[in-house]
Structures are given as structure tokens and as C-alpha cells.
Amino acid sequence: MELFIYEHCPFCCRALMIVGLKQLDVDIGIIMEGDVETPTRMVGRKVVPILRRPDGSHMPESMDIVHYLDQSAAPALVQRGGDAAIDAWVERAWPLMLRLCVPRFTRTDFRELATPAAREAFVARETRAFGDLQALLDDSDKLLDELRPLLDELEPLLATRGEAIDESDFRLFPLLRSLTIVKGIGFGANSRRYLDAISARCRVALFDDKAA
Ligand SMILES: N[C@@H](CCC(=O)N[C@@H](CS)C(=O)NCC(=O)O)C(=O)O
User: Fold this and answer.
1) SS3 for 150-203, per residue?
2) Ligand 1: distance of its center to the CA of 25 in Å?
3) Which pLDDT score, from 0 to 100, does residue 115 have?
């Protein structure tokens, strides 16, 4: 099987998590930003992640891929459902995360941005979605001030999280992992412990070394 991703993409992170958690023999392929043709040929539109299955068919949609790969090798590890409070927290934090992370993603050495044309395509796509990316970067302190109380609210939600992996982990970890690209983010102790634990269990690297 082969999983096609962008390295920066939080939805792709979900699929990488299950591959690492179950130590599956799945090749990782990078689709370049700006490459419309490859994903469109596979699933009819420009989107990642995409999984090529053993029969040659292609599957989009990150949570579908998570469950498909989880079922592909016993025992299944991902509990259906999750923690409604964590899911609600993710919903609230997601737009803020994007405004902090997207301008930084556009300036980072991800493999999908390895050519000038790919980086240009990414900047153009994200500028259409978010407006002036430099203005967002200039707003970082204000955005971080908005995020800090949310991160504080997350701490007690993580205090009681046990060993079991459920769907909420596939929503929360990609968001927190994205935020590791923001210098001085200042996670609480439980968030930091959670990030490091899931990163190690799922063999998905964080972005601390790329933080700006
Ligand atoms: N519902 C999809 C969403 C995937 C998604 O939005 N991926 C983004 C990348 S982060 C994408 O493909 N955007 C379109 C593009 O690259 O033009 C899933 O969960 O897999």
C-alpha cells in the first residue's frame, strides 16, 4: 500500500498515526503542492491524504483511511467515538491553529514545497483562504494570547486520558502537533506529555525543530 500526503497536513497526520501505531508496511508518497493532476487521477479531486490499497484502488478521507488500516491488521486498536469535550475543544481551537500555523507552514522545508513552483502554489492557495499571510504572522502575539486560555482549558481534559486510543486522538494530536511549529507556544504539562507520548507511540515526528 502507499499513503500519499503533504508532510504539513493535519489530516494526513491522522493517517500517518495509524500507520505508525500499527507499524504497517505502507510506503509514504509525497504529492507536491500545485500538483492537481495526480490526486485528481486517483480520486477525482485535489486532496490528500489518499491511500492506494492492495487492489490498486484509491481511498481519500483521513478517518476512513484510519479505520480501513486499523481493520487491515488485527487487533483493531482505534475505539470508535471518543471524548465529546476534547472534540468540542478541537472544533474551537482549529481556526486559531490554522491562523498561527499556515503562514509558518508556507515558509518551512516540507517535501511537498521542495520546488519554487510548489511553494508558490501553496502560498497562493493559502492566501486565497486566509488573506495576507505576512499580516497573520505579524499578528502572532495576539493570536497566541487568544490561544493560551484555550490551552489552559485543555489541561484538565488530558489529565484523565488513559492508554486507549480513540477517534478523539486522531482529531487532537494533529492539531497539537501542528502547533509545535509555533515558537514559544508554551504547552501545559499535560499537553506536552500527551504530545510526546502519542508522537512516540505513533512514530509521528513533531515540528519542534522547525518552530518559528
Ligand atoms: N475531509 C478530508 C480533508 C482533507 C483536506 O482538506 N486536505 C487538505 C490538505 S491539508 C487538502 O487536500 N486541500 C486541498 C488542496 O491541497 O488543494 C480528510 O479528512 O481527509
Assistant:
1) HHHHHHHHHHCCCCCEEHHHHHHHHHHHHHCCCCCCCCCHHHHHHHHHHHHHHC
2) 23
3) 98
